[in-house]
Amino acid sequence: MEEVPFWQDRLAGTARAFEADLEVRGFVREDDGWLRGPIPAQSATGLVGEPFRIALPSTFPFSPPVVAFPSPPDVLTWHLSPGGHLCLFRSSNDPDRPWETVDGLFERVADWVNQNAIGWPDDPGDPDLHRYFDRHIEYLVSYNSGEHATGPLIRTERNGNEWIHLSPSQENRKARRKDSGMWFHGVDLGLLEHPIWNWSTLVKALPDDDREDIRALGTSSKGILLVHYARNGTEGTRNAAIALFIQPPAPVKAKHSGRVTTPPTLAPDAESSVTALEITDESLDARWFRAGPDAERMKCKHVGVIGCGAVGSFTVDLLARSGIGEFTLIDPERLVPGNCVRHLADLRHVPRHKVDAVRDILVERDLVAPERIHTVAEHLTAQTAINLLMNSDLVVDATANAAVGGLLRDLAHQVGNVTFLKVALHREGAMVRVDRFGVGTSDMDQRPPFIGALPTDGPVFREAGCGDPVSSTPPASVLHAASMACRAAIDTMRPTNQRTLPDSLVEVLAAQPDAPWDRAGLIS
User: What domains are defined for the chain?
Assistant: First the structure.
């Protein structure tokens, strides 16, 4: 006999104990495996012993039990899913797992019953209509919430994948169906009082002007319906959209009688099937919503980055993803194949200048407009440095070059009201250091000490030509340095009284033989 894994046996034991407790409280196991019994619940009408059905998922107690009414109701509410399942927990990631005991589960069900009786006054109004449909995984659908995407739509394939972008169209729908094999349409259901969950409820909720159109389309061929809707709640009116994949009902098989064949027909009660597709809002606002709390104020910031090598290239990428709206990039070097293992750019960009490669990647990813990225494929001069310091909100030195750092510090002191950052990896990527210099920053004697180099015992590998040593810094250290530089840059561009980071950050990624670097961790 095959041995049951210990973890599976442990989960099963927990489930058995939970079910045994339910049986003690009067629950009876039904033929389909569910347990049915009463749950005492205090509602607005008094104490009632509602009958419910309970089933435990295979991942119990890490996932909550499923609780349902004995029979699905005719009309669903926003807290009741198809099949009569109660929506009890906002997240299954609650570390306290209030559903782990029968008493904890009963308490939550009783609260649900009471809230349902008084009309959910504290409902935030989550636009979660996708929960009411089975998932269809064939396509990813995107749309732009800033467009009026209703009526006949057209699609645009993205990257050759099964990614469909829907946008408004004035084309003839029949012509589009012939070309694509599918129809695409957008509707606005307005403010929904109750969810929809199948073809019948969808058709009833459609605006009068769209109902017959969509009914005809959905019963004749497959298509994608982009549904806009809104919900009211404690957080006000919230707008959302869902993409529904609609397939016509299968016709009844033809009957053969001699040489006469009866054409296939639809059963009188046949309905089109409706499943939910993965959908995403492709507007810039939706993307910046995920870019962090400072993204909005960073859109108007101009950052100059000197050095677009490994650390510099990823720093620029992270800053662009964090909302920075304009860049000046300075680096004279070209990309070579050996750079690509640690660089933002890959072999497609060899042998272009690094600044041009980074610029094109940001533009390709739609992170920054091309006219707002300025590149200088030359060595830094004093005049270029002064212009950069005076015309940027922040300058980041990612060259790891002492001469560049010294020039910037001297010029920053002369120019006056400017600030710049210096980021560098030390000791083959074992340490990262980020320093903030300029007006209002602390003196060097108040910061972590200078990081000296360790003597090397083995052979040193050098680049051909200039003789510079080849760094063995691992890519993970590069990304760590870029992340620290990005966080320090965002912090520096906040108002002075809102900064939370010190002027110097040193992180030891691998403990070193000399103090104070002999312990891994952050030193500031």
Answer: 6-118 (3.10.110), 129-250+270-282 (no CATH), 295-448+469-523 (3.40.50.720)
